C-alpha cells in the first residue's frame, strides 16, 4: 500500500492511524458535511447559503440560523 496512513484508513486500523506523526483526524460535524446530505438524513429543508457569506462570521451566522436549530445537540 502507499503508506501507513492510507493503510490505516483502508483497514479502519486506529493503531496505524495513531502511528502517523502529526496526523489530525477530525470532522467538524454538521459543518463538515454537505447541506443536501444533512437535510436528507434529518428530514428537513435546509436553505442554500447566500452567494457571499461575508467571511467566517457570515458563514457562522448562516449556520446558526439555518442548520444549528435542527441539530442543537451536535
Automatic annotation (TrEMBL):
It comes from the Bacteria. This is Adenosine deaminase.
Amino acid at each position: 500500500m502507499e503508506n501507513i496512513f492510507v493503510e490505516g484508513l483502508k483497514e479502519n486500523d486506529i493503531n496505524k492511524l495513531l502511528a502517523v506523526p502529526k496526523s489530525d483526524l477530525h470532522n467538524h460535524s454538521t459543518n463538515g458535511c454537505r447541506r443536501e446530505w444533512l437535510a436528507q438524513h434529518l428530514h428537513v429543508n435546509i436553505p442554500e447559503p447566500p452567494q457571499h457569506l461575508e467571511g467566517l462570521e457570515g458563514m457562522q451566522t448562516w449556520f446558526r440560523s439555518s442548520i444549528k436549530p435542527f441539530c442543537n445537540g451536535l
